[in-house]
Design brief:
Length: about 425
C-alpha cells in the first residue's frame, strides 16, 4: 500500500519506518527541513534502539522516503496518517489540536481524489467528528479513521511488530477490511484486531494511558506508606502483581511518571470529561499526586544531605524519563536539577543519550561524558534512570572518597549489599537499614 505519514516525530517516524519494513511504500513528510535532510542522510533525529538501521535499510530499498513537499506526499498516497503533536495548552488541561486541524485543511487543499485519513495522534473523543466537519466543506468522500498508537519509547520497533492489540475506529465499516489488510503481518502473529466506532477508539487510547498512570501513582503512594511502616514495597508489588486481575506491569515504585504520553493524556482525558460535565475524580487525583511526587523526592535529598546544599556535589546517573530514549518531557530531572542548583549545589549528570539542551543555561550544572568522571568526588549519587549500564556498577571503584552516599530512585541495588560495602544507601519504599 502507498502510505503518507504527516509528521516525523516519534509516532510518525517509527510507524512509517516499520510500515515500510513490512513492504509498503511510505513517504514521511515534515516542514522541518533540517530534520528531513538528516533523515535523507540515513540518520534518525530521535534516539530509539534499532531505528537508524531500519531507516537505512528501507531507504536503500526505496520503500521509504522523506520530503518537505506535502502536496506531493498526499497525492502519491492512498492512506494518510496524521502523526503531529497534540500538546497540552499552556496553563490549561485542554489539548492543543491546532496541528491536527492544520493537517486536515492541508489535506483538503492538496488532495485530488478520495483518501483514507487516519489519526495516529492522540486526540480527545470527538476529534474525528471535527475533522469530518472540516473535510465536508468540499464534497469529497473522505474516510476518517482513528487508529491510536501504543508504542513504548525504547521498545517501539518491537511493539509495532508484536502489538498487544490493533484498534481501528471508524463509522464506515467498509474501511475495516483495508486496515486489516495493512496490519495483516501482525494479525497473522496472533495480535487482536479490535474494531469500534471512531469515538470508541479515541477514548480507548486516553483511558488506557490514564489507567497505567494510575497504577504508577498508586504504587508510589503505597511506597510512601512502606517507608514509614518498615515494609518492602517490592514484596507488596510482587504480592499484588501476582493476582492476574491486577498484573505486575507498572507496579514498580520510583519517580513520578513522565514522557510524551501520560502527563498530557491524563490531563486531556480530564479536559474531555469536563466538556461532557463528567467528574473524573480518580484521574484528577492521579495528576495531583504525580505532581507532588517530584517535590517529595526532591525534599528527601535534604534529609540525606541536610538543609544547606551550598557547594554540595550531586551526581545524576540518567536524566531522561525512562531508559532507551532521549525524551526529556516531564522527566523528574527537569524539576529536581534546577531546584538543587538554585540551592547552591553543584550538579553533574551523565546520560547515555547525551547532553541535554534543557540544562545548558543552568548555573552549576554540567554534563560529563562517562560515569567515572561524573561521580568523582560526589557527596551524593542520584540514580534516576534505569539504563542497563547503571545496573551493575562497582561504586567502590568509581568513587574513592570513602563517604559515598547513593539515592537510588529505581531500586536497582540491594540495601544489604550496599551496607556490607559501607555505602550509605537510600532507596524508594524500602526500609532504611543504614
Amino acid at each position: 500500500m502507498k502510505l503518507c505519514m504527516i509528521g516525523t516525530g516519534y509516532v510518525g517516524l517509527v510507524s512509517g519506518t516499520c510500515f515500510a519494513d513490512i513492504g509498503n511504500e511510505v513517504v514521511c513528510v515534515d516542514k522541518d527541513e533540517k530534520k528531513i535532510k538528516k533523515l535523507n542522510q540515513g540518520s534518525s533525529p530521535i534516539y530509539e534502539p534499532g531505528l537508524d538501521e531500519l531507516i537505512k535499510k528501507n531507504f536503500l530499498a526505496k520503500r521509504l522516503r522523506f520530503t518537505t513537499n506535502l502536496k506531493d506526499a498526499i497525492n502519491s498516497s492512498d492512506i494518510i496518517f496524521i502523526c503531529v503533536g497534540t500538546p497540552t495548552k499552556k496553563g490549561s488541561l485542554k489539548v492543543d489540536l491546532s496541528f491536527v486541524f492544520k493537517c486536515t485543511k492541508d489535506i483538503l487543499r492538496f488532495s485530488k481524489k478520495k483518501k483514507i485519513i487516519v489519526t495516529k495522534s492522540t486526540v480527545p473523543v470527538g476529534t474525528g467528528d471535527e475533522i469530518e466537519k472540516i473535510l465536508k466543506k468540499r464534497k469529497k468522500n473522505f474516510s476518517i479513521i482513528s487508529n491510536p498508537e501504543f508504542l513504548r519509547e525504547g521498545e517501539a520497533i518491537r511493539d509495532f511488530r508484536y502489538p498487544d492489540r490493533i484498534v481501528i475506529g471508524s463509522n464506515d465499516k467498509n474501511v475495516f477490511k483495508i486496515m486489516k489488510k495493512l496490519y495483516l503481518p501482525s494479525i497473522n502473529k496472533g495480535t487482536k484486531f479490535i474494531t469500534t466506532t471512531r469515538r470508541g477508539a479515541e477514548l480507548i487510547k486516553y483511558a488506557s494511558n490514564a489507567f497505567l498512570a494510575t497504577k504508577i501513582t498508586f504504587i508510589n503512594e503505597v511506597a510512601n506508606l512502606c517507608e514509614k511502616s518498615g515494609v518492602n514495597i517490592e514484596d507488596v508489588s510482587l504480592g499484588m502483581g501476582s493476582d492476574n486481575r491486577i498484573g505486575s506491569r507498572f507496579l514498580r515504585a520510583g519517580p513520578a511518571y513522565g514522557g510524551s504520553c501520560f502527563p498530557k493524556d491524563t490531563k486531556g482525558l480530564v479536559s474531555a470529561a469536563d466538556k461532557y460535565k463528567i467528574n473524573l475524580s480518580v484521574v484528577k487525583s492521579v495528576i495531583k499526586s504525580n505532581q507532588e511526587r517530584v517535590n517529595l523526592l526532591t525534599q528527601r535529598i535534604h534529609k540525606i544531605l541536610g538543609s544547606n546544599l551550598k557547594n554540595k556535589k550531586i551526581s545524576f546517573l540518567g536524566v531522561t524519563f525512562k531508559p532507551n530514549t532521549d525524551d526529556m518531557r516531564d522527566s523528574t530531572s527537569l524539576k529536581m536539577i534546577p531546584y538543587l542548583c538554585k540551592k547552591g549545589a553543584k550538579v553533574n549528570y551523565y546520560d547515555p543519550s547525551g547532553e541535554k539542551k534543557e540544562f545548558k543555561k543552568i548555573k552549576n550544572c554540567k554534563y560529563t561524558k562517562n560515569i567515572k568522571s561524573n561521580c568523582s568526588g560526589a557527596d551524593l549519587i542520584v540514580l534516576l534512570t534505569e539504563w542497563d549500564e547503571f545496573k551493575s556498577l562497582d561504586f567502590k571503584k568509581i568513587v574513592k572518597n570513602g563517604k559515598l552516599k547513593i539515592y537510588d530512585l529505581r531500586n536497582l541495588y540491594s540495601a544489604e549489599e550496599m551496607k556490607k560495602n559501607k555505602i550509605k544507601y537510600f532507596s524508594v519504599g524500602r526500609p532504611n537499614i543504614n
